Amino acid sequence: RVQLQAFRKRSSLGAKAQEAVMAQIQEWLERYLEVEEILQEDHESASLPKFLVSNMDEIEDAALELRRLWNLGDDAIENLMELLEDQQIKVGLVDGFDDFDACTFQAGESPVIVTKMGQPGDRQRFNLAHELGHLVLEVGPDMAVEKAAHRFAGAFLVPSETARRELGERRSNLDFSELYLLKHKYGLSMQAWVSRAKDLDIIDENTAERLFRAFSAKGWRKTEPGDALISEKPLRMQRLIFRAFAEDLISHTRAEELLGTSLDPVWAVKALKNDVAATGFNY
Fold it and tell me: Which stretch of DSSP H or E encloses residue 218?
C-alpha cells in the first residue's frame, strides 16, 4: 500500500468520513503509480522550494519567488491544475463529502494535492493554491498556519503589483461588476479580491467589512452572481493510460479499470470536460 503522510482536512470531517476519503485517495493513487510503473516513467521528484516565513511580507515574497522559479510572470495563471501537474505534483479529485475541501500529503517522493470535485473554478483554484502554500511554506512559530496558506494563495494567484495595476494604489470602494470581471480574468473569487485588496491596503478594513456585508445581504457569500467559473480537471493520469494502451502495454479492459471509465475517445466523453460522474476518483 502507498503510505500517505501529513493528511490535512477540515476539523469538522469525522473519523469515518476521513477514512472513506483516504480509501478513495489510496485507490486512485495506486492506479496512478501503476500506470507510471507500466510506462517505466522516471519518477522525477518535484523540485519544490521551501520558504521560511515569519510575517505576511515574507509570504508575499515567497509567492513572487515561486512564480519567478516557474517562469509565470505576473499575469493570470490560465490553468492552475495543469501547472501543478507540470511541476510533478500529483493532483486528484474526491467527491461525496461536504466537510472535505482539500488536503496535501507526501506519497513517497511525490507531493500530492487532492481537492473536492464539483466546486466552482474560483473556489477550486484557491484551494489548490492554498494547499500549494502548505507544500512550500515553513511557517514560523508566531504565525497561524492556515492564515499563512490563505495569504500565499491570494499572492500566488494575483501578485501584489498585478492587484495594484488592476485596482489602483488606493480605493474608497470597489464595484461588484469590476470584481466579477476580475474574477473571470484571474480565477479568483469576487470576495477573495476584496480580501486581497484589504491585505494590500488598497482598501481599508471598514470598506472591506462593508463589501462583505453587502455580499451577505445579497445572498452571494456561498454562490456569487453571474456565470460560475468552470472548474479544472487533472489530465496527466489519463494521458499516461491512453499512451500505455496505444503502445499495447495494457489491455482494453485494464485501461478502462485504470481510467475508472470507458475507453471512449475523450471528445466523446462528457465526463472529461463537464459532467464528472459522482463516483469518487474516476481519474
Answer: none
Q: DSSP string of 161-193?
A: HHHHHHH-S--S---HHHHHHHHHHHS--HHHH
Q: Is residue 183 within 8 Å of residue 122, measured between CB atoms?
A: yes
Helix residue ranges, H only, the chain: 15-38, 56-69, 80-86, 121-136, 145-157, 160-167, 176-186, 190-199, 205-217, 236-246, 252-259
pLDDT, one tens digit per residue, over 209-243 is 999 999 999 999 999 999 999 999 999 999 999 99
How are beta strands 90-94 and 4-5 bridged, if at all?
unpaired
Q: How many residues does the chain have?
A: 283
Considering the entire predicted model, what is its pTM?
Answer: 0.89
Do the beta carbons of residue 124 and residue 231 sit within 8 Å?
Answer: yes
Give the separation between CA 156 and CA 134, rounded to whole angstroms.
13
Cell of 202: 488598497
| Cα-Cα-Cα-Cα dihedral sign, residues 80, 256, 272, 104 | negative
